[in-house]
């Protein structure tokens, strides 16, 4: 049975009652859980003795014209999935609990948060780093697991943990995909049947670039053009960015060298924004 902790006081009491020496794994989420999230729970279980998840739709990481109000919140179904996965506890705070009246401190990472989604969603990663640091302080986990699908988010959190000496080990869980390659996302439910049929081209564009790289093409700009050409097959896909980046700093590169590269894409299908990525040439 998953213990439901609905405020900071109950979380503190639960955390204090854990036996000494037990390793605590943590998976923060915004809910609307799918198999990608559940795979992170299993990875946390492999790395820890006790696993806690959180569900909090964080208003700080949504822009004024984004989908905060309609973001899916199937909490009962989410709890059932966590129980089936053997998660020990769920932290389910309110906005008021996370951001009390008068709260005015934000956490801003200033390098890896700048390009890609950071350029398209101003303030988004400040919202992410602020809520994640708060959650780390509340939960006090030994290890936390984040999904590679949000590769830039992983990089930002890793940089924050390093820069602030936060005593949490960060692990990345691999992307979980549908049979046709579409990365699992809570936002996939917004796709119309026509947009869903076109969506696998996003992953196909990444694989096409990987194949071109393996075939000897290392020029970053030409590789990106290969990816964009795949997405151009459908007029339903509006590319926001298709980039070949340094896998650690996320800085621009001209050639894929020994460090490899992160292939990163963001695109709109209808009103739904999807992201995906693939590492080539080296491990992140």
UniProtKB/TrEMBL annotation:
<feature type="binding site">
    <location>
        <position position="176"/>
    </location>
    <ligand>
        <name>ATP</name>
    </ligand>
</feature>
<feature type="binding site">
    <location>
        <begin position="184"/>
        <end position="187"/>
    </location>
    <ligand>
        <name>ATP</name>
    </ligand>
</feature>
<dbReference type="InterPro" id="IPR014729">
    <property type="entry name" value="Rossmann-like_a/b/a_fold"/>
</dbReference>
<dbReference type="GO" id="GO:0005524">
    <property type="term" value="F:ATP binding"/>
</dbReference>
<dbReference type="GO" id="GO:0004592">
    <property type="term" value="F:pantoate-beta-alanine ligase activity"/>
</dbReference>
<dbReference type="GO" id="GO:0015940">
    <property type="term" value="P:pantothenate biosynthetic process"/>
</dbReference>
<comment type="subunit">
    <text>Homodimer.</text>
</comment>
<comment type="pathway">
    <text>Cofactor biosynthesis; (R)-pantothenate biosynthesis; (R)-pantothenate from (R)-pantoate and beta-alanine: step 1/1.</text>
</comment>
<feature type="binding site">
    <location>
        <position position="61"/>
    </location>
    <ligand>
        <name>beta-alanine</name>
    </ligand>
</feature>
<dbReference type="Pfam" id="PF02569">
    <property type="entry name" value="Pantoate_ligase"/>
</dbReference>
<feature type="binding site">
    <location>
        <position position="61"/>
    </location>
    <ligand>
        <name>(R)-pantoate</name>
    </ligand>
</feature>
<keyword id="KW-0963">Cytoplasm</keyword>
<feature type="active site" description="Proton donor">
    <location>
        <position position="37"/>
    </location>
</feature>
<comment type="function">
    <text>Catalyzes the condensation of pantoate with beta-alanine in an ATP-dependent reaction via a pantoyl-adenylate intermediate.</text>
</comment>
<dbReference type="GO" id="GO:0005829">
    <property type="term" value="C:cytosol"/>
</dbReference>
<dbReference type="InterPro" id="IPR003721">
    <property type="entry name" value="Pantoate_ligase"/>
</dbReference>
<keyword id="KW-0547">Nucleotide-binding</keyword>
<keyword id="KW-0436">Ligase</keyword>
<feature type="binding site">
    <location>
        <position position="153"/>
    </location>
    <ligand>
        <name>(R)-pantoate</name>
    </ligand>
</feature>
<keyword id="KW-0067">ATP-binding</keyword>
<protein>
    <recommendedName>
        <fullName>Pantothenate synthetase</fullName>
        <ecNumber>6.3.2.1</ecNumber>
    </recommendedName>
</protein>
<dbReference type="InterPro" id="IPR042176">
    <property type="entry name" value="Pantoate_ligase_C"/>
</dbReference>
<feature type="binding site">
    <location>
        <begin position="30"/>
        <end position="37"/>
    </location>
    <ligand>
        <name>ATP</name>
    </ligand>
</feature>
<feature type="binding site">
    <location>
        <begin position="147"/>
        <end position="150"/>
    </location>
    <ligand>
        <name>ATP</name>
    </ligand>
</feature>
<dbReference type="InterPro" id="IPR004821">
    <property type="entry name" value="Cyt_trans-like"/>
</dbReference>
<keyword id="KW-0566">Pantothenate biosynthesis</keyword>
<comment type="similarity">
    <text>Belongs to the pantothenate synthetase family.</text>
</comment>
């Amino acid at each position: 049975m998953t213990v439901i902790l609905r405020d900071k006081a109950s979380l503190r009491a639960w955390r204090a009652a854990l036996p000494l020496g037990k390793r605590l794994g943590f998976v923060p989420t915004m809910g609307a859980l799918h198999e990608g999230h559940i795979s992170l729970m299993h990875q946390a279980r492999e790395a820890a003795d006790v696993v806690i998840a959180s569900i909090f739709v964080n208003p700080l990481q949504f822009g004024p014209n984004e989908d905060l109000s309609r973001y899916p919140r199937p909490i009962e179904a989410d709890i059932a999935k966590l129980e089936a996965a053997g998660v020990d506890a769920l932290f389910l705070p309110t906005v008021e609990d996370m951001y009390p009246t008068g709260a005015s401190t934000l956490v801003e990472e200033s390098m890896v948060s700048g390009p890609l989604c950071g350029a398209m969603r101003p303030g988004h990663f400040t919202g992410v780093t602020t809520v994640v640091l708060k959650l780390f302080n509340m939960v006090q986990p030994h290890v936390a697991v984040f999904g590679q699908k949000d590769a830039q988010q992983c990089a930002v959190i890793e940089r924050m943990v390093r820069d602030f000496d936060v005593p949490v080990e960060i692990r990345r869980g691999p992307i979980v995909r549908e049979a046709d390659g579409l990365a699992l996302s809570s936002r996939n439910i917004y796709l119309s049947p026509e947009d869903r049929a076109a969506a696998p081209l996003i992953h196909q564009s990444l694989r096409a670039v990987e194949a071109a790289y393996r075939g000897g093409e290392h020029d970053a700009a030409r590789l990106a053009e290969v990816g964009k050409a795949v997405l151009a097959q459908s007029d339903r896909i509006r590319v926001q960015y298709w980039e070949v980046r340094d896998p650690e700093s996320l800085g621009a590169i001209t050639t894929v060298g020994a460090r490899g590269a992160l292939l990163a894409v963001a695109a709109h299908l209808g009103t739904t924004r999807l992201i995906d990525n693939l590492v080539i040439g080296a491990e992140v």
